[in-house]
Description:
By secondary structure, the chain is mainly α. The protein is built from seven helices and no strands. It has helices at 14-17, 27-38, 59-71, 76-85, 87-93, 105-116, 122-133.
Amino acid sequence: MLGKENRQTSFFDTHFVCAHLIDKRGFYAKMHDLSDKIITDEEFSDIYCLNNGRPSVPPARLIKVLILEHYENLSDRGALENVRFNIKWKYALDVPLDYEGFDRSLLVYFRARLLINKREKIIFRKTLELAREAGLLKEKVNQVIDSTPMVCKCQGLFPLFR
Length: 162
C-alpha cells in the first residue's frame, strides 16, 4: 500500500531543532526546500496497491535517500547509516531527529520497482520540466552526441560553462 509523508510537526522536527546548523546555501538546505516540488508520493500511486497491505515507506523519501546516496557516493549501508545518524540528512529528508530509518534491502526492492515500471528517469524528467517552467531552458534541449558541454541553449542551467 502506498505510504505518504506525514506532515504533522513535532518537537523533534529538524526544521525547528537544528535548521540554524545547516548552511542555507548548501545542498542539504536546497534539498529540504525544493525536493517536494520535484517528486511527490502521488506520482507513484500506480505502482503501489492503494487499499491492501501495510503502508510503504513513502516513495518520495526513498527517492530522496537515493539522491543523497548518489551525491555522497555511498553504499546502501552507508546511506542508511546517514539516514539514522546524520543531522544534515535528516534535515534534507525532512524527518524528525528520532527517525530510525528502514532496512537497506528496501532500497534494492525500490530500485527494482522503478526499473520494472520504467520510472528510473523520473527525477531527471521532473527537473527538466521545472527548469523549463523557471525559464532556465529557453527552447527544447537537443541531445548532445559527445561529452562537450553545450552552452548555447542552456546558459542558465550550467553557470560554470559561461
